[in-house]
Write a structure and sequence with these properties.
The model has no long low-confidence stretch (mean pLDDT 96). With 561 residues, this protein is of the alpha+beta class. Among the domains are: 122 residues, Uridine Diphospho-n-acetylenolpyruvylglucosamine Reductase, domain 2, CATH 3.30.43; 117 residues, Uridine Diphospho-n-acetylenolpyruvylglucosamine Reductase, domain 3, CATH 3.30.465.10; 124 residues, Alpha-Beta Plaits (2-Layer Sandwich). The chain is globular and about 80 Å long. The chain contains 21 helices and 18 strands. Helix 5 packs antiparallel against helix 19. It has a 7-stranded antiparallel sheet, sandwiched between helices. The chain has a 5-stranded antiparallel sheet with strand order 5-6-10-8-9. Bound molecules: flavin-adenine dinucleotide.
Length: 561
Amino acid sequence: MEVERKWWGWGAPGEFYDVSNRPNLWSFFRKYGAMEEEVPSVTLEDLKTNIPEPVINRSFLDEITEALKKDAVKTDAYERIMHTYDQNCMDMLLLRKGIIRRAPDAVIYPGSHGDVEKIVGLAHKHDVCVIAFGGGTNVVNGTVPETREKRMIINVDMGRMKKIIKIDNESHIAWIEAGMPGIQLEKELNALGYTSGHDPDSMVYSTVGGWVATRSSGMLSNKYGDFTDLTVSIKMVTPAGTIATPVLPATSAGPDLNRIIAGSEGTFGIITEVVIKIFPLPETAKLNTFLFTTFDQGVKAIQEMVEKECIPALVRLVNEDEVEFALKTARKSKSWFKNKAVDLFFAYLSKIRKIDMDKTCYMILGYKGDKKTVRHRQKITRKICKRNRAIDLGRGAAKTWDEGKYDLILIRDLIVKHGVLTDSAETATVWSNLVSLYNNARKAILDTMQKYAKPAWLGCHISHVYRHGASLYFLFGCKEKKGEEVEQYLDIKNTATAAFVSNGGTVSHHHSVGVLHQPYLKEEIGETAAGLLLAIKKKLDPKNIMNPGKLIPGSGNGDKP
Ligand SMILES: Cc1cc2nc3c(=O)[nH]c(=O)nc-3n(C[C@H](O)[C@H](O)[C@H](O)COP(=O)(O)OP(=O)(O)OC[C@H]3O[C@@H](n4cnc5c(N)ncnc54)[C@H](O)[C@@H]3O)c2cc1C
């Protein structure tokens, strides 16, 4: 790997969730199944000796090694292990158990668009499968090789293609190599006075190419749009040739090719360059938190903001279970007075204001822009929240969340080690269906979790708001059933996705389809549209070498996770 990362889990080796000074954290996790002791795990050295023998297509390997730079082709066990799984909880369980059924047989690091053309061309010639790899942050097994694939599989890690190629300052667009990680992109753009406006929680590792390939959505999507809205042009290498969509502000020249490529998850080709919109850095950024008496009341307030065309850049409505999580895992202030003030405030809310504190939700609002507009929006949204009986908590909780937002995933690794099964499932639907989908999906997911363990925890938040509806992001956690962890995981995850589609939601708002959501795709888009995707794939990739088995029903070997 180009950057050193843990062999299982999130982050760099030695990077862990800081549990110090969080007095209620462990009692909260124990309530939901965390054990005192750690679940035993294999070591990286064990995995290296256990990894299946590679399938080698000798002619391909010789030709590609000859065609690329000296250190571009890797076949060692470490590289193969690091590119076997992506980032869901099941992947973590399998790694810790030492289970690798199929790994990529080689990992290749292109340094340029030309290198990618050579790789895809030779893979097509020799019938070798190709999995594009950005940051490996996918959570639906989009980069995981198919177990039953008999052909050689190569993983093409884009980690060496991470340059800003050029910037057009007059048009506010930038040409970016596809392997550019979010955090580096933002740092380099900020230094030039710009932002990309895209800020997913996976920012540290996820890449521009991965964002296009999965139709990613960032925390500021209300202001800047989802990544598809931010994409001006795409260059993609397919077995049938290279497609470079024109750099235009708009066009009516036939179907929107960018939107055909966006979300293709490496099944059509490898994206090598993306032209994106860039924005001058906002003059100011402000945060607010409001406490709502119920989730529904918070939803009503957001709808009012939409009607008034006054949606903050960031809206995050957190349900009562996520509030419990936030309170129980929070750091205690070093100041006695501050802690006392918080206790007194909560006592005042429950005793004097008669608010049922177990039902309260909070909403984080984030504003970005010029000072005048931000002030105006803060004023209007505060009025809307108050009209919906919300209490203004200032910026405290929002600031705490903002400071720790990229590290929350480290909690996953902490509790997985202690026997808790945890992950997310997310969807989106129109306003008229939102509360009903929320209630139905919540009941279905909780019922399934409680088959295995009680109590089970299920948080939910809204974090992406549109004129016609919003996303719902569920987070679940419960004690794992020893020996059946993978089945239990799939049962909960499948329950969630089935509940979303049968209740009028999408299989995924921004996590894409991969393997885990694929069985539900036809129900969402229909037979004819699924056939259209397959027809495009057959035209661009006649030998079905590009990430077979992902996204498109009927494109794989019928692998089950
Ligand atoms: C902690 C965490 C937080 C997350 N938060 C968010 C979030 O806020 N918003 C969001 O949208 N997603 C989020 N995700 C999901 C994930 O980060 C996104 O799907 C992201 O867009 C994937 O980018 P990547 O570069 O890591 O792609 P990868 O995981 O490497 O690949 C994802 C898919 O895209 C394909 N692909 C990758 N690069 C290319 C390329 N250059 N050409 C063609 N195909 C390619 C792969 O083959 C695979 O099918 C989160 C995931 C985690 C683990």
